[in-house]
Records
---
Amino acid sequence: MSSYVFMRLLESSAWRYDRGMRLLSRGRIGKVYESMAAMVARPGIRILDVGCGTGGVAVACAARGAEVVGIDRNADMLDVARSKTLPFGARGTVEWLQLGAAEIEDRFGPSSLDAITACLLFSELSPDEQSYTLETVLTRLRPGGDLVLADEIVPASVARRFLFRMARAPVAVLTYLLTQTTTRSVEGLAESMRAAGYVNVDEQRPWADFLIVSGRRPLEAA
Ligand SMILES: C[S@@+](CC[C@H](N)C(=O)[O-])C[C@H]1O[C@@H](n2cnc3c(N)ncnc32)[C@H](O)[C@@H]1O
């Protein structure tokens, strides 16, 4: 799905984002939100969803009883998120804040979060922003707390990589011409997490060019 670069277009028309993402992902994005929530969300735990957009992951976590804060720098995406209701009977909560990833350090105290999620955020960050975010987030997780990221990757096989790049290039140019922004498929995310100090790093590839990666803040040395 090299067309994820179209996400940038969808973000400039936030009320169309959910429908557009369902089309781009051929209906699979909802399963990604549910998988991420299933990995971390439990009743009463405190979760931060960074780059929450229209709230897919945050709502799925709150539906499982978690107390979620969704942050995003785009006010229009947050308006869509705020319009959503939790499923009947859900006991979790969700709060939406307009905040950039770089402001996490100021807004959330050290070790104050049980889990952190970010879906399709890292492909919008520069390599320096990615490293900074991984390092900051580690200090905001409690020891033993989990980070779960999901994003577009370049496929592993040579043939698929070739096709992926051929298909992506024109879409990226068109998106850039229309929005003056683009996304880049993330590379080496699991290695970057290990280098930043996460343990138990684990990767799943639900399809060829999509990755869900989780890692844990180590328990303090005894
Ligand atoms: C492709 S959307 C993903 C939204 C949502 N997580 C999802 O999976 O549907 C990326 C979101 O990240 C937000 N974003 C990008 N860079 C950000 C940053 N530095 N800080 C906070 N949000 C950011 C964008 O505004 C956008 O809503």
---
Amino acid sequence: MKTHKTIRYRLHPQTKTKANKLFALAGARRFIWNHFVEKLQEDYKSYSKCNPSYYTLGLQFTRLRDQLPWLQTYSANIVKYSLKPLETCYKKYWKNQGGLPRFHGKYTHPPSISLPQGTFKLNRKSLYIQKISQIKLSGNNPYPDSKCKTITIKHEAGKWYAYVVYEVETSKLPESINPVGIDRNVGQITLSDGTRYNLPDTTKLNARKRRYQKMMARRQRLNRKQGIAPSKRYLKAKLLHAKTQQRIVQARTNWCHQTSREIANKYNLTYMENLNTKGMTASAKGTIDKPGKNVKQKAGLNKAILQSGWSKLEQYLDYKTTIIKVPSAYTSQTCNKCGHTDKTNRKTQTKFHCVKCDHRANADLNAALNILASGIGATARGDSAVRRS
Ligand SMILES: [Zn+2]
């Protein structure tokens, strides 16, 4: 089986000319997107069914390109490829799976360029983009033998990045397994051997982020209705805010790399809860039961935070070990000693006390042991409920 994995590289345009070329290409891409979004909006008003295909959009694009000489300095394939998501967007819209496409604003939408096959050449040190030039690249590729499918270039917090999608063979089960269960929680993970890892403390960075947020609130922001562009002071605060956010992400990324390495040095198979299921809300319980708040909504929010925080660790563990997902239902309520499941077993966020056999333990460790046990059982049975990531 094959899956897709995305790896982020840092791009170093090195000269101002190269960087400006990237900005210009992203601008052309945005122009074409907005042009066709507007055109399709008019079509949508006059016909009831507006369902453009990439092919017809491409024909219209070629006609437009002949009329606009400035557009001819850019690679036609790259600029045209920006219309691919437009087709997908309308297809989804008619299936009731999403809204109509929106305009990409200069200030609201960070510059980004998707590169179709044949318009780029990627090697370990550099990325060649059609009609731009060779651009220096840094970052590690954990999948050196895999085929590169697509590349998206983005400008985030003052830096250029390339998101490369690889087609990767799913890893096979190792012959001699040395498994571990991992319980993920808010801000920390617990292994089934009792080791606990806490996420890095970002309180100071969070406070700084809030300060920049307040700064932004005091300054002239983008006002579409009155046609006011954001002030330079506002954009400066916005950049500082984005850079702080990036430092928080970097602290987490670094932690994920180190933690996954430590785990992979000891174990070659990891079992994790499947966070997509409803069971997750139970372990986030300590934070959701606030009176006056919509508990369901809050639980969904917590789940989203948890997922976003742990997906990176999962990604890194995936190429250092083999990951197997187990169903997450009742892992925090079941006693690891006698198997009795009861809502009242979990006394507090940290304490676990079985009502049947009087087994006392740390709640997270108990959950991690349950995950390990359920994983081992499922692997032995070759269970279809177990999902390989
Ligand atoms: Zn028990």
